Amino acid sequence: MRFGRHHHANPLALVKPLKIQERELSWLTSEQITELLQVIRDRCDNPHVEIITLICLATGARWSEAEKLKPTGLRNAVITFRAEGAFCADYGRAGSQDPPTLEKHGQPNSAITSFRRALAKMTVQLPKGQAAQGLWHTFASHFIQNGGNIVTLQRILGHSSLAMTMRYAHLAPDHLQEAVRLGPAIKYQNQT
Locate the Tyr recombinase domain: which residues (predicted)? Predict the structure, then answer.
């Protein structure tokens, strides 16, 4: 039947909806970031892993975006990933004086396997399948914990809906105080 009414019972009526369990968000603390960078410097077999890691941590870029970045994408401490967007990275806050030098590295080859091996050498372990995504969560978590705006984070991460970004909202140090401060002023008088 092409158009019209269907006169039979719903064939999917007895199918239970799938429960999709959202994966735990894992991110690195400042101390763990320091440990990761040290492990990468000391024991990593791919020279591109450190710069890709630094770019991901500083900008919230996905591993593949940072890995495909060309030297022309970094000018005057501004990293441009696509024509319509740019991110100004504050490298001094991250502990280094200068932005990473893409010119000395050239175009990186696939470095994710080397990054995973470096992660395996750390004292802390991210959940399986969250190696590079852990850097993304690390950026987002620190951004919110340091007072970043959730809508700005949505734009940086490229989320199509704010609902996706809201999973980081509970990390805001003053998220409840902010709700009270910005909500309507209500005067209550005790009726005794």
Answer: 23-181
